[in-house]
Design a protein that fits this description.
NAD; 11 helices; 18% strand; Rossmann fold
Length: 295
């Protein structure tokens, strides 16, 4: 990892918190924005400096920052705006574009920008073809962040994340709550990535800021969702939820939209350009680690 600096983390969520837990012991300063004043104590307890934003002057934090990471999702339907519908760029885009002291910017996007490929493979050179409005908004936000970084003369890494899982966000939680469902749609697979691998990938990009402009974050094994649920149940010694045919499943619009797309995500660039060796190359490794840690 490079010499410790200061990370300004916009929308300091699950993945960014895992990154901060990796950086702070190495001497990094982390400034974490939140919209909720009541979240300040929890953020401070992790060693990061909380900043309620919007609602404060961002200039002092930007002046200190050597690196910027945004986890904030865009607003669908506003892609034609200069900000691309991105709330961070809407509120701080001009300041970021002039922040030439920064050495790196990062933006957390999604593999949803590739759209449906009927189970086929996608990589970073696959043209974006978003099928859902939320994914189209991501494409617009990626472009807006690219423009902002170019104006500042700062390297940008866009991370396209597969489905995120980890402690507190895994099948074990739904199994124990009795809400897990094994929905079976023939041929359906999802790619996923453990939060620890997200953290190490972002740290690797910070250390190699010009290595790649776009990188997929996914593990080595795309798999049917019911297989993951059943494997977790077996590991935890819990009953397997019965199979529910997709056509008979009671799903909300958001959940159903995920099943409308099927693709397998390549991660070659993650390994070759950033030198990442996955901690959890598949869901079996990741789930076993979560269970060992009591998750």
């Amino acid at each position: 990892m490079s010499t410790p600096g200061t990370l300004l983390s916009f929308g300091h969520g699950y993945s960014a918190q895992a990154l901060a837990a990796r950086l702070i012991p190495l001497g990094w300063q982390v400034i974490a924005t939140t919209r909720r004043p009541e979240a300040r104590a929890a953020i401070a307890a992790t060693g990061a400096t909380p900043l309620v934003w919007p609602g404060c002057d961002l200039a002092p934090a930007l002046a200190r920052a050597s690196h910027v990471l945004s986890s904030v999702p865009p607003v669908p339907g506003q892609g034609d705006a200069p900000s691309g519908g991105d709330p961070v760029l809407e509120g701080a885009g001009a300041a970021l574009a002039q922040a030439r002291h920064l050495t790196w910017m990062g933006y957390l996007s999604t593999t949803g920008v590739y759209g449906d490929h009927a189970g086929g493979w996608v990589d970073e050179d696959t043209p974006t073809a978003p099928g859902a409005p939320r994914s189209a908004a991501r494409v617009a936000a990626e472009a807006a962040w690219t423009r902002t970084a170019a104006a500042a003369g700062v390297p940008l890494t866009v991370f396209r994340l597969a489905g995120i899982y980890g402690p507190g966000r895994s099948p074990f939680d739904t199994l124990r709550a009795g809400t897990a469902r094994a929905i079976v749609k023939p041929g359906q697979v999802f790619s996923r990535i453990h939060v620890d691998d997200i953290a190490q990938a972002i740290a690797a990009a910070m250390a190699r800021p010009t290595a790649t402009a776009v990188v997929n974050l996914a593990d080595d094994l795309s798999a049917p969702p019911q297989e993951v649920i059943w494997h977790a149940a077996d590991l935890a010694g819990l009953p397997r939820p019965p199979a529910i045919p997709f056509d008979a499943a009671d799903l909300g619009a958001m959940a159903r939209s995920f099943y409308a797309e099927c693709r397998r995500t390549r991660n070659d660039r993650l390994k070759s350009a950033l030198g990442v060796r996955l901690i959890h190359p598949d869901y079996r490794s990741g789930l076993a680690a979560i269970l060992r840690a009591g998750g």
